[in-house]
Design brief:
single chain; four-stranded antiparallel β-sheet; Anticodon_Met; elongated; ligase; binds ligand ME8; 16 strands; Methionine--tRNA ligase; six-stranded parallel β-sheet; about 45% helix; alpha/beta
Length: about 525
């Protein structure tokens, strides 16, 4: 039977600088969502990439005295390296300068034009030749000699240029009907409400080409125009699914199951994108999820992490799974969040080093010492044993529901509730005391604890993949038995199976000067 497909994307980042913590946050969260579905048996396509055209790239390139292409070629590899450094499991990395993307952008343009939704008009506004950008009147000011200046301090003049327009106004009712009939199309709910009231106020047609610069995808049939920003950028999601070749084996992934983006670009994704797709006769994505913004609480992170915005430095300093866990657990996905040195250290020391790490270390060391380094005998399970294992199974159901609506923090909270419960179980059963009084019962308790850790580790894979894999290795769980379908008794540890020597998985964060923190 063919596996169910799941297609998920991040936004494509502007490579006009180095990647920052916001880019890292979005990629980590999307990675967790993608990995979750893979563990759940789906055939996943996970896409990320860079948005290399447009005015921002040109402006930065000009400041640095290089071409936009040189700038893209210099910075995009940093985004690719970041994806590796974050252990992102993306299946593809798209650059909008690639030929496949030019082909797709021109194809969707032609489809929208064939529908009669693109017309030639003129665009006017306060234009800065130096910035190659238009500004709204409110962004400009008039200087002493009557010269008007833009926000970058460069002179602006009133310019009218030929531009192609997309008939967005014709889609107002169709979009409102979409939001009505597919209430899950936009998440979270606050964002949906904002979009609905914005669209109700009426939509204006959209200028979608420029003649003042040529860094972009040429408009088919009128090559003095290049596509301006959103047609080109949004189309990346279908380019990677093989568009316009609907016979491509990748086309089965479309429509996307979720586009994960920041709240600042929710409008473009939930208004322009479905309108373009309706116009071109292409199916709509199932969900647009606008996550919140991440802010540094303004505290100094630590002596050695100078630039805390740099995701590479953050990972280097705290450890990758520590950063992943912190970002996914601490900030309710969808809301804004902040990060600071103390918050990262407290959260990861408490949950990872103390709760999960100590539980694994203590129980596995006892097994190594007292059970000949083998999975202990299961014995006759008591009610408490069955309860803790059942709870791990229930956490999967909770996590599934939460991940389906991108409530990543809720899924993780459910998993770590099992960790806390397993600690209480282990402490309450006192296997060290049973060693003398009832060694058979000790084995059952150690078996149950190890089995609970196996289930927890399987559930942790989407969030902290490397550490979860280490835990599963310590339990000698074969690679092909780490899916969610293996979580129940059918996949349980087999008594007598040999185990490798235990090793700590989550080091405790210790400050540079050696003082233990939190
Ligand atoms: O917007 N916290 O690119 P971009 C969380 N190329 N997320 C943040 C953030 C922060 N502090 N800062 C930015 C673009 N982001 C376009 C997208 S998609 C067809 C085109 C998020 O590099 C931001 O919301 O400015 C966006 O989702 C992503 O990072 C890339 O932002």
């Amino acid at each position: 039977m063919a596996r169910e497909k799941f297609y998920i994307t991040t936004a494509i980042s502007y490579p006009n600088g180095s990647p920052h913590i916001g880019h890292a946050y979005e990629l980590i969260a999307t990675d967790a969502l993608a990995r979750f579905q893979r563990c759940d048996g789906k055939d996943v396509l996970f896409l990320t990439g860079t948005d290399e055209h447009g005015i921002k790239m040109l402006q930065t390139a000009r400041k640095e005295g290089i071409s936009a292409r040189e700038l893209a070629d210099r910075n995009t590899p940093k985004f690719q390296r970041m994806a590796q450094a974050l252990n992102a499991s993306n299946d593809d990395f798209i650059r909008t300068t690639e030929e496949r993307h030019h082909i797709a952008s021109q194809a969707i343009w032609k489809a929208m034009a064939a529908r009669g939704d693109i017309y030639l008009g003129s665009y006017s506004g306060w234009y800065s030749v130096r910035d190659e950008a238009y500004y709204g009147e409110e962004e400009t000011r008039v200087g002493e000699e009557g010269v008007r200046y833009g926000p970058q301090g460069t002179p602006v003049e009133w310019v009218e240029e030929e531009s192609y327009f997309f008939k967005l106004s014709a889609y107002q009712d169709k979009l409102l009907a979409l939001y009505e009939t597919s209430p899950d199309f936009i998440g979270p709910a606050e964002r949906r409400n904002e979009i609905v009231s914005f669209v109700r106020q009426g939509l204006r047609d959209l200028s979608i080409s420029r003649t003042t610069f040529d860094w972009g995808v040429p408009v088919p049939g009128d090559e003095k125009h290049v596509m301006y920003v959103w047609v080109d950028a949004l189309t990346n999601y279908i380019t990677a699914a093989g568009y316009p070749d609907e016979k491509s084996e990748k086309w089965r992934y479309w429509p996307a199951d979720a586009h994960i983006i920041g709240k600042d670009i929710t409008r473009f994704h939930s208004i322009y994108w479905p309108a373009f797709l309706m116009s071109a006769g292409i199916d709509l994505p199932k969900r647009i999820f606008g996550h919140g913004f991440l802010f540094n609480r303004g505290e100094k992170m630590s002596k050695s992490v100078g630039n805390v915005i740099d995701p590479f430095a953050l990972v280097e300093h705290y450890g990758l799974d520590q950063v992943r866990y912190f970002l996914l657990r601490e900030v309710p996905f969808g809301q804004d969040g902040s990060y600071s040195h103390d918050a990262i250290v407290n959260r990861t020391n408490a949950d990872l080093a103390n709760d999960l790490g100590n539980l694994a270390q203590r129980s596995l060391s006892m097994i190594a010492k007292n059970c000949g380094g083998q999975v202990p005998a299961r014995g006759v399970p008591a009610e408490a044993d069955e309860k803790i294992l059942r709870q791990a199974l229930d956490a999967l159901a909770t996590a599934r529901q939460a991940m389906a609506r991108q409530a990543i923090h809720t899924a993780l909270a459910a998993v770590f509730e099992v960790v806390a419960e397993s600690n209480r179980y282990f402490a309450g059963q006192e296997p060290w005391a049973l060693k003398k009084t009832d060694p058979a019962r000790m084995e059952t308790v150690l078996y149950t604890t190890a089995e609970a850790i196996r289930r927890i580790a399987i559930l942790c894979q989407p969030f902290i993949p490397a550490s979860a894999a280490k835990l599963l290795d310590l339990l000698a769980v074969p690679a092909e038995k780490r899916q969610f379908t293996d979580i129940g008794m059918e996949g349980a540890l087999e008594p007598g199976a040999p185990l490798p020597p235990p090793q700590p998985v989550f080091p405790r964060y210790v400050a540079e000067d050696g003082a233990a923190e939190a």
